[in-house]
Amino acid sequence: MRRIYHRFPQSIDLDFELARPFREVLACIARMHDTHTTVRGADGLVKERMLVQIADGRTQFLDLNDLAPLAEKVAEAADFRIDLQRTLLTPEKRLPVSENVFFLRIVDKGAVTECYVAKEGRLGDLDAMDLRKMLKGACE
């Protein structure tokens, strides 16, 4: 079943291919959901968290945990909403640093998977190339 969001942006920031079949890319994206890393930044420790949602009913997004197993419920094409959150960890409190939201469409092209990325809004310090690096890293 195709899972397409009818309001996917018409203006694409980046179009690229992953040299992996569609099912493998789906598995990579599912593994990235609700993960986090901690890195040392200029101001201290920064927690980077990734949340992934998938299109549901053409009008909304659904948490990936609510659609398991993903490979049995998705075919041909899928739209995702990826939320990358950065939080500064201090001894007293947690301070939000930035939030980057991307729309990602993946399309089955046989041995490769076509990917389209569009960033929602102008806020945040990441761009479509950063998401591409994350996807390539997760799938290799």
From TrEMBL:
Protein name: Uncharacterized protein
Annotated source species: Methanoculleus submarinus
Top-level taxonomy: Archaea, Methanobacteriati, Methanobacteriota, Stenosarchaea group, Methanomicrobia
